[in-house]
Design goal:
The protein is about 45% helix and about 15% strand. The chain is of the alpha/beta class. The strands form two sheets. Strands 1-2-3-4-5-6-7 form a seven-stranded mixed beta sheet. It binds zinc ion (2 copies). One zinc ion binds near residues 67, 116, 117 and 289. One zinc ion (ZN) binds near residues 67 and 253.
Length: about 375
């Protein structure tokens, strides 16, 4: 493995991995079901204009998932919010950004520490060594803490160790699959996982260089960018990126167009944090996953979180066990939430409701 890569080596290396991933795009059955399939199928990202000079980079569905990014053009360089799960994905977006502006990328903001939001940082750092990487102070701590959860430098090692087993299992499943579509899906997942492991073997962490412990407003070029710290939610270090003039907010995974991932979250705080976000003036949400959303989606997503917490609390008070909750609550909450939480091929209601109930149970009624 190269210990010190030149920028050219790096781009070539990442480009090879990217080509390997993209070559499989047409085989990936999940993409055919994507809400945005017509334009996203052949690219990892679709750049959608949201306001003047503000773009949402909407990630195509992948087995090794990528987050969305927000791309903010200013007359003092480009600001990119979140950098995906791997250098090849960040490189793909970097190239797309270059097709709309030749301005350098001067700032990357990481909304939180999860693997699928920061592992591409190094691409921007390699391309622009003076790059500023911004996060909350807590996110920087989480990126180096061994017990932080689903992200950070220690978690890269956890993934490296786990991936060979995952590759073996996918290979076994592929060998015994008989259905043609299932074979294609498994083959694509296997190749994505192999390519991902190769990338992680050459991974060089690029950590935040500037952190905040409270809400700040920064002026970049002529644009005001507010970095909001509103409390715990999806993690204990979430930031929201608010553009007050353009009325846009980028939310990371604290508000997404999928079912929430709650394992490193704080369900009751999360509701209050979203209350605080709602007080800001915005019309468009660029979420960490899924499509661009209107402000009204905040109430829907928060409603799910608060109804989930309330349902688990009342079931617990009535003496229900976790298993009983997992059997009864999904259907009870489905009328209100199943359709709206199943718009995309990933992160659907029935995929995640059981896990969400379990996490809410552990964190809210304190039963491990
Ligand atoms: Zn994410
Ligand atoms: Zn996350």
């Amino acid at each position: 493995m190269a210990s010190s890569w030149t920028r050219r080596d790096f781009l070539v290396g990442s480009g090879a991995a990217l080509a390997a991933v993209q070559a499989l795009d047409h085989l990936h059955p999940c993409c055919a079901m994507a809400a945005d399939a017509p334009t996203a199928a052949s690219e990892l990202f679709e750049l959608k204009p949201v306001a003047d000079g503000i773009y949402a980079a909407i990630a195509a569905p992948r087995y090794k998932v990528n987050c969305n990014a927000a791309v903010i053009l200013t007359n003092d360089g480009v600001v990119v919010v979140d950098s995906h799960s791997k250098p090849s994905a960040a490189l793909a977006l970097y190239r797309e950004i270059q097709s709309i502006t030749k301005q350098p990328i001067k700032r990357v903001i990481n909304t939180h520490f999860h693997w699928d939001h920061w592992q591409g940082n190094q691409v921007y750092m390699e391309a622009y060594p003076g790059l500023e990487i911004i996060s909350s102070e807590r996110t920087l701590e989480n990126l180096t803490r061994p017990d932080a959860g689903n992200g950070g430098i220690p978690n890269v090692d956890v993934q490296r160790k786990a991936l060979p087993k995952e590759i073996e299992q996918l290979g076994n499943q592929l060998a015994s699959a008989t259905d043609a579509a299932e074979k294609l899906r498994l083959e694509s997942n296997l190749r994505q996982t192999e390519a991902y492991l190769k990338e992680l073997e050459q991974f060089k962490p690029a950590l935040p260089t500037r952190t905040f412990d409270k809400t700040v407003s920064v002026v970049v070029g002529a644009r005001e960018i507010q970095i909001l710290l509103l409390g715990r939610g999806h993690t204990d270090g979430d930031v929201f990126i608010h553009l007050p003039k353009e009325k846009v907010v980028a939310t990371g995974d604290a508000l997404i167009d999928w079912m929430p991932f709650m394992n490193d979250g704080f369900p009751e705080d999360w509701v209050r944090t979203l209350d605080a976000l709602e007080k800001y003036d915005f019309t468009h949400i660029i979420p960490g996953h899924g499509g661009v959303l209107p402000k009204g989606q905040l109430a829907f997503f928060r409603g799910y979180m608060s109804d989930l917490v309330a349902a688990v609390k009342s079931a617990h008070a009535e003496g229900a066990s976790l298993e009983e909750m997992k059997r009864g609550l999904p259907d009870r909450l489905a009328a209100k939430y199943e359709q709206g939480m199943s718009k995309h091929p990933l992160g659907r209601y029935r995929d995640r409701i059981g896990g969400n109930i379990e996490i809410a149970y552990q964190k809210v009624v304190g039963k491990a």
